[in-house]
Design a protein that fits this description.
Length: 414
């Protein structure tokens, strides 16, 4: 059972998935091993992820491991309808289509109706819904995993308040996830989304990046590489200092609002760009969000300030303010790399989704973990890194016994 946009799109989706598989050797190796060991046999896995070709490879891997799999989209505009069609054709239950704004939570409800034992979230909506509206499902739950920073923050807050009722593994915090996916994946795909929507020249532009976490670092790095003059705004003194040491201008958002040409939010927080900033911005400014939810750019303020609005290009809206200036918003302020492009390259998602698959197997083997937020076990993180290096034809050195002893003991001295 599925609800998707158009089953006739399956053939194109199949080609996309095959392309992703050819670029995801680590996950394909895990799929091969899952097919033999069946670590998820008898379990139901519900995933609320961006429905992309890379996600399809993960879903196929989980099913190869013996799981019954159901998928819903974690963003109303990130679903690739052709991929959803192919997954549904293969018998995987999918509740997702591009533009399902009004039925977004209906899709979550349908996924949860399968009474999952393990959940996979990108933003935390499945687990939050279980805890708030579907508490009867908690008894079935072995645990969940979380793909992104925003969701991990939510679950750590739940743990602190004693509200978390089953274990959650923070896949986002794995080194083979955030150091690569957040930085290189988002850095490239965010620029990709902006270019597809505007075809604007980055060289010579003042690009303002709000937030200097791993996502902000990646965006700033790629924008600088394209010749932009990068400005970073931050609320964290250490991160702001790091941005300054990395060679970027650092200033308040009020100051940056006056000179920026392209603004990209990447904080995970709400109302970063708002009325006081919009009123100071130059005519023709481009606004994009790389944070998970569409709350970083305060769109209600833009709506109140507008004198008119029209769609200029695919995924690009022009807001004409009452002061005569025009601001251009990409993808309704939602994740620009997924609403206006295809998301991260498959090579990066290879590591992220390998972690997801291994974590699902890890949870299946440990059904009695106490409710808290866990890090991805170091051995799994290191395994993903080693497999990725091998697939890239790289080799590294191994410490000798003498070297290991030197690092692990104190008697030898200097």
């Amino acid at each position: 059972m599925s609800k998707i946009a158009n089953p006739k799109l399956a053939a194109q989706g199949k080609l996309k998935i095959e392309w992703a598989e050819s670029r995801m050797p680590v996950l394909m190796q895990i799929k091969k091993e899952f097919s033999k060991a069946k670590p998820l046999k008898g379990l139901t896995v519900a995933a609320c992820l961006h429905v992309t070709k890379e996600t399809a490879v993960l879903m196929r891997t989980l099913r190869a491991g013996g799981a019954k799999v159901v998928l819903c989209g974690s963003n109303p505009l990130s679903t690739q309808d052709d991929v959803a069609a192919q997954l549904a054709k293969e018998g995987i239950s999918v509740f997702a289509w591009r533009g399902n704004h009004k039925q977004y939570y209906w899709c979550l409800k349908k996924a949860l109706d399968f009474e999952p034992n393990i959940t996979m979230d990108d933003g935390g909506d499945l687990i939050i819904t279980i805890h708030s509206k579907r508490k009867e499902l908690i008894r079935n739950m072995i645990g969940g995993s979380e793909e992104t920073t925003t969701g991990v923050i939510r679950f750590k807050a739940m743990e602190k308040d004693g509200a978390l009722k089953f274990p959650v593994i923070a896949v986002n915090d794995a080194q083979t996830k955030h150091l690569f996916d957040n930085r290189y994946g988002t850095g490239q795909s965010t620029i990709d989304g902006i270019l597809r929507s505007t075809n604007v020249l980055f060289s010579g532009k003042n690009v303002v990046v709000s937030g200097y976490g791993w996502v902000g670092r990646g965006i700033a790095m790629r924008a600088k590489g394209m010749g932009a003059k990068v400005i970073v705004t931050e609320t964290d003194a250490v991160k702001a200092l790091e941005a300054a040491m990395d060679g970027y201008q650092v200033m308040s958002l009020n100051a940056a609002a006056k000179i920026g040409d392209i603004f990209i939010t990447a904080t995970g927080n709400k109302h970063i760009l708002r009325r006081e900033h919009f009123s100071k911005m130059k005519d023709g400014v481009i606004l994009a969000n790389a944070g998970h939810f569409n709350v970083e750019i305060k769109i209600p303020d833009m709506e109140k300030m507008k004198n008119g609005k029209r769609k200029i290009r695919e995924n690009l809206e022009e807001y004409k303010l009452r002061n005569g200036k025009k601001l251009y918003l990409i993808g309704e302020g939602r994740l620009v790399n997924l609403t206006a492009a295809e998301g991260h390259p498959s090579e990066v998602m290879d590591m992220s989704f390998s972690n997801q698959a291994l974590v699902a197997s890890y949870l299946a083997e440990r059904p009695k973990l106490r409710p808290r937020v866990y890090s991805v076990p170091k051995e799994l993180d290191n395994l993903v890194a080693a497999l990725k290096l091998k697939s890239m034809k790289y080799s590294i050195d191994t410490m000798s016994k003498e070297q290991k002893k030197y690092l692990e003991t104190w008697q030898e001295g200097t």
